[in-house]
């Protein structure tokens, strides 16, 4: 019966490209140093996609791992959602390339452009399609190749970002299932769109020599403003999830915030008195991987025996847009 179904996380997977760019490597490229980067961001290294790897290739590895973890065949997937701002091409969607590479036939596939909130947006959309009764299994991927949009002369941005992918299979839960996606809350504030933007290459400033000469083909950012808004937005999303589910911070086993900067994560945890021991921090290994950051951190935490089935997990994200949101689930 429509509207009577609930969804659960059936399987997870992730992928980090092999090549690693350390802070010491960056010292040779731009005026910065390891100590500054670690103190201000918590980042120690980030992974960089190989020359032959596009975003859909990263998606493919993560997606296959998630399907294997869920123990379902690709033919059982009803829909593919890819959260990304660094797709293979301006068009068509990276989700369509992924669909082809997976051999998933004749199902809907589309990208979500919500920047670093892309994965949380994707999970929420998948949850709605399952709750409505329309679909049983949805593949949600967050993936980015951000290093292709970095200006390695701009020390304020190039130290922050890395590449990677994470994928979840979201499936219809059996009636007796207790491990469910409980809620999602999503937001955007387009008035702050200019704080983090890739200005060139779209319809406003199509690709041209002038766009390249002005460096408009690179991501630009007002770091301090982003910092303040990130803390505010993620704290708001956490509050909303806790109130909606009538859950107190001590009933949440793990918080997984978007991995942008360790100090942002600490500030959010501080507001809710979430002890840092129950907050997943993986930014040291990956840098900011935008839509991939939450599923990458989640997978790492599962692999390392931190997150276990049956635990209550709060995801919270913010990103360019500015977008933000949260998902509360029992894993
Ligand atoms: N190495 C060395 N020095 C640097 C570097 C660097 N890489 N970058 C900046 N500095 C210098 C600045 O020039 C400045 O020097 P000055 O005092 O002589 O002017 C000094 O360090 C301090 O700069 P601040 O901007 O005040 O440093 P802050 O503590 O704010 O940290 C940072 C900067 C890390 C960018 C921080 O503001 C931040 O993390 N903001 C959020 C960024 C972010 O997460 N963006 C993406 C979010 S959305 C998404 O994920 C898509």
Labels describing this entry:
alpha/beta; five-stranded mixed beta sheet; four-stranded mixed beta sheet; 11 helices; 33% helix; binds acetyl coenzyme *A
**Overall pLDDT level:** 96
What does the largest sheet look like? 5 strands, mixed
What structural class results from the helix and strand content? alpha/beta
**Count, helices:** 11
What is the spatial order of strands in the main beta sheet?
1-7-6-4-5
Distance between the termini: 25 Å
Instruction: Name the bound molecules.
Output: acetyl coenzyme *A
Helix content: 25-40%
Cα Rg: 19 Å
Order of helices and strands: EEHHEHEHEHEHEEEHEHEHHHEE
Low-pLDDT windows of residues: none
Global geometry:
globular
Sheet-strand content, in percent, reads 15-25%
Number of strands: 13
Plain-language structure description:
This protein has 331 residues and is α/β, with parallel strands linked by helices. It has 11 helices and 13 strands. It has a 5-stranded mixed beta sheet, sandwiched between helices. The protein has a 4-stranded mixed beta sheet with strand order 8-13-12-11, with helices on both faces. Strands 2-3 form a two-stranded antiparallel ribbon. Strand 4, helix 4 and strand 5 (108-112) form a beta-alpha-beta unit. It is globular, with a radius of gyration of 19 Å. The mean pLDDT is 96. Bound molecules: acetyl coenzyme *A.
């Amino acid at each position: 019966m429509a509207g009577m179904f609930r969804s659960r996380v059936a399987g997870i997977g992730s992928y980090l490209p092999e090549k690693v760019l350390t802070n010491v490597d960056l010292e040779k490229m731009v005026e910065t140093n390891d100590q500054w980067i670690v103190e201000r961001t918590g980042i120690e290294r980030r992974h960089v996609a190989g020359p032959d790897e596009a975003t859909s290739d990263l998606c493919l590895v993560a997606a296959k791992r998630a399907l294997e973890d869920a123990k379902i065949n690709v033919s059982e997937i009803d829909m593919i959602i890819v959260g990304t701002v660094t797709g293979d091409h301006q068009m068509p969607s990276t989700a369509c390339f992924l669909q082809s590479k997976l051999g998933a036939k004749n199902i809907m596939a589309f990208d979500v452009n919500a920047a670093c909130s892309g994965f949380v947006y994707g999970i929420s959309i998948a949850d709605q399609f399952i709750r409505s009764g329309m679909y049983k299994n949805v593949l949600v991927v967050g993936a980015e190749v951000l290093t292709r949009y970095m200006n390695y002369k701009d020390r304020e941005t190039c130290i922050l970002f890395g590449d990677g992918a994470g994928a979840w299979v979201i499936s219809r839960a059996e009636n007796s299932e207790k491990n469910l996606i409980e809620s999602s809350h999503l937001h955007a504030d387009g008035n702050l769109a200019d704080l983090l933007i890739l200005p060139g290459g779209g319809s406003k400033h199509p690709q041209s020599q002038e766009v390249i000469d002005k460096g408009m083909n690179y991501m630009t950012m007002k770091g301090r403003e982003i910092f303040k808004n990130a803390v505010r937005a993620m704290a708001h999303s956490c509050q909303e999830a806790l109130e909606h589910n009538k859950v107190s911070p001590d009933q949440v086993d793990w918080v997984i915030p978007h991995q942008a900067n360790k100090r942002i994560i600490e500030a959010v945890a501080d507001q809710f008195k979430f002890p840092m021991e129950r907050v997943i921090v993986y930014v040291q290994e990956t840098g900011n991987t935008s839509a991939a950051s939450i599923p990458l951190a989640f997978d790492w935490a599962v692999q390392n025996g931190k997150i276990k089935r049956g635990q209550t997990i709060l995801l919270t994200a913010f990103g360019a847009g500015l977008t933000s949101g949260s998902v509360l689930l029992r894993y």
